[in-house]
TrEMBL record:
Residues 254-342 form the CobW C-terminal domain. This is Cobalamin biosynthesis protein CobW. It comes from the Bacteria. Residues 8-211 form the CobW/HypB/UreG nucleotide-binding domain. GO terms for cellular component: cytoplasm. The keyword Membrane does not apply. One of its GO terms (molecular function) is hydrolase activity.
Length: 344
């Protein structure tokens, strides 16, 4: 790459648990020696996504290549966190050939795209494309849908209101910014459901954007990278519910960390967590636990009531085998009751 060429950056966005980290891992598995740096941003404070990437064993996912921004959503911390991080990456003796930015599941992509117009980086890096990952089954379950009666009632009081569901707003902002939509978790959907979801997603897209179905974010790197969108030059085509607003808040959502006791088995733990997720309508849980006598750490992931686990790495000698779990949901979660249920 000549010094005059801008480094392309791909923004991977999508709601909590849609499969962004899984997709990033898949891209890295196809890097074939290409120098790809990853910036990963999380809403929860444990830095789990970064940890899972670093321990995945794929060449390129070494610690040096991954920068974690765990200080809230990237859309609100662009000036403090994102820009210095970007500058530091570009100033490396061997700058990355491509940069992947995984936003938090609650981040609005537009302020991040706008940041690429800042004088310090505008001439050095460009948004190659915004890839929006969609959790197919969650959309099919109506997670992002409004209650039409509630919207009508609230609209009577507020002309500007267009959603009663805060998830719907984040979902639309993420689709509004997309250059490519990945309809993920197709393994959990039949053909008719995929066709219906394509139509539903298209109804939220402000312009013609390709929608590709995927399992585990497994798409060819040539489909995902090299879109050449220069999204920072094209902001008007990417509507946001927060256009015109100087600032926005994430106070519709809440996140906290609770200790997770040692469980008898992975199956028993997952069954218990899934029940709690349903009971308290929790959106996302992820964390680590220890099993008696097992040398490996158990990583657990929940999206709604759907859970998965794997053993991610050995506990280090002398390391406290303390389990921890990040819980994310809509504001007003009963933290004490959830912590008690997990401890019980
Ligand atoms: N069944 C199924 N599960 C998937 C698929 N892709 C990802 N998952 C699972 O969904 C869960 C969430 O995946 P992640 O890749 O961590 O999602 P994310 O969007 O990075 O999550 P956040 O960073 O918390 O917003 C994990 O348990 C994944 O294994 C898929 O295509 N099918």
């Amino acid at each position: 790459m000549s010094k005059l060429e801008k480094v392309p950056a791909t923004i991977v966005t999508g709601f909590l648990g849609a499969g962004k980290t899984t997709l990033v891992r898949h891209v890295m598995s196809q890097a074939a020696g290409r120098r790809i740096a990853i910036i990963v941003n999380e809403f929860g404070s444990l830095g789990i996504d970064g940890d899972l990437l670093k321990s995945c064993g794929i060449p390129g996912c070494e610690e040096d290549n991954i920068v974690e921004l765990a200080n809230g959503c990237i859309c609100c911390t662009v000036a403090d966190d994102f820009l210095p991080t970007m500058t530091a990456l570009l100033d490396r003796p061997e700058p990355p050939e491509h940069i992947l930015i995984e936003t938090s599941g609650l981040a609005l992509p537009k302020p991040l795209i706008k940041a690429f117009n800042w004088p310090g980086i505008r001439s050095r890096v460009t948004v190659d494309g915004v890839v929006t990952v969609v959790d197919g089954p969650a959309v099919a379950d109506g997670r992002f849908a409004d209650d039409p009666a509630a919207v009508e009632a609230q609209r009577a009081a507020d002309d500007n209101l267009d959603h009663d569901n805060p998830l719907a707003e984040v979902f639309e902002d993420q689709l509004g910014a997309a250059d490519l939509v990945v309809l993920n978790k197709a393994d959990l959907l039949d053909e008719a459901a995929v066709a219906k979801l394509r139509a539903e997603i298209a109804s939220h897209l402000p312009r013609q954007v390709k929608v590709v179905a995927a399992r585990e974010g497994a798409l060819d790197i040539a489909v995902l990278l090299g879109l050449g969108a220069a999204a920072e030059d094209d902001l008007a085509a990417r509507p946001s519910h927060h256009d015109g607003a100087d600032d926005h808040e994430h106070d519709d959502f809440d996140s906290f960390v609770v200790p997770m006791p040692e469980a008898a088995s992975a199956e028993a733990l997952l069954e218990k967590l899934s029940k709690i997720a349903g009971e308290f309508d929790i959106l996302r849980m992820k964390g680590f636990s220890s099993l008696p006598g097992k040398p490996m750490r158990l990583a657990v992931q929940g999206v709604g009531t759907r859970f998965r686990h794997h053993f991610d790495r050995a506990w280090a000698p002398g390391e406290a085998r303390d389990g921890q779990l990040v819980v994310i949901g809509q504001a007003g979660l009963d933290k004490a009751a959830i912590a008690a249920a997990i401890a019980g």
